Amino acid sequence: MRAKKFLTAALAGLMALGAFTVDIQSTQAATRAELAAINVNKKGNFKYWAAKSEAKAALVDYVKDVTNPRSKNFIPVEDRIAVFDVDGTLVCETAPFCFDFMMFIHRALDDPNYKAAPEDRSNARDVRAAIDARKVTNDIRRKHCLSNANVFAGMTLDEYADYTRNYLETPVAGFGNLKIGESFYMPMVEVVSYLHANQFKIVLVTGADRQYTRVLSEILPVDNVIGTDYQFIADDQGDKDGMDSYFTPSVKIVRGDFISKNINMNKVSAMARELGRQPVLAFGNSMGDSSMIFYTTVENKYRTAAFMVLCDDLERERGNQKKADEMRQKSERYGWTPISMRDDWTTIYGDNVVKEK
């Protein structure tokens, strides 16, 4: 919440000083600030959803019911936990793939200020080839995680955050007027704001690097980020474990080895460990999110709901109709509410963003 207020205030200050001499719609700072300033009230004054959207109506109906103290389905504030997948649910993942993967490739192969080890360069080429072929297997994901640890090892938290913020300035491949840090789905940002206004805890549960996602999502009112984890160690720790080393005033905390990839069952394990209770509301976009959704909806003492974002917009987004049709069928089978990018959203990234042919 502080980040939202800071970005909005900073933008207002720069405008007052005359710092912006171009159309603010086309600048990175304005777009991030506009996303941060999206504010949906408790009643649901959505702007970027179709008026007759059944998915929006289902969400509003659910929230009104479970936040009404007189309803038999009332959920106390402390148990209002909403979990969101990130890539493909809140942000673009089709240009050409999840952006933490693309940042790794950039670091290993294209960063002029860094020379990766031969094995990490080889892994980065394999990852890029798999993305190009649209065949990203779990073996490829393991290669990414292991080498991602190596190429960012030794960075402090601030150094890694600064590197990520710089990378977020990169234009999104295949789109005009869009940078990686701007590539949130505006209607889903409204959902986050709406749930926050209704006192839901917002938890991002992602397969992406946890620290990367914290920086990417700092414009949102997020309560917790659960993601793929890497060690944080003392810069002089060497081979000692945490029980045999100490933090002293001269020590710096730096990134270390890969710990675990936060996908499938690992998402459930992490939620159980870090939240200590079941979520009541879940948002995903693929069967990769099914474990998270089933954990939310099965044998829960509260009324639950699950929503599935369908990548069915082939005009404004690099959609995949086959996948969208499959996920609609899965949603019907399991009682999840489908969200159509094409039919439910009046915009995706903003009207000034154009998909290139």
Quick structural gist:
The protein has 357 residues and is of the alpha/beta class. The chain has 13 helices and nine strands.
Question: Superfamily at the CATH H level of the largest domain?
Answer: HAD superfamily/HAD-like
Number of strands: 9
Helix content: 40-55%
For the biggest sheet, the summary is: 7 strands, mixed
Provide mean pLDDT, rounded: 91
Domains counted in the coordinates: how many? 3
Task: Give the radius of gyration.
Answer: 21 Å
Q: Structural class of the secondary structure composition? A: alpha/beta
CATH-defined topology of the largest domain: Rossmann fold
- CATH architecture descriptor of the largest domain: 3-Layer(aba) Sandwich
Give the H and E element order.
HHHEHHHHEHEHEEHEHEHEHE
**Contiguous runs where pLDDT drops below 50 for at least 5 residues:** 1-30
Number of helices: 13
State the distance separating the first and last CA atoms: 37 Å
CATH class of the largest domain: Alpha Beta
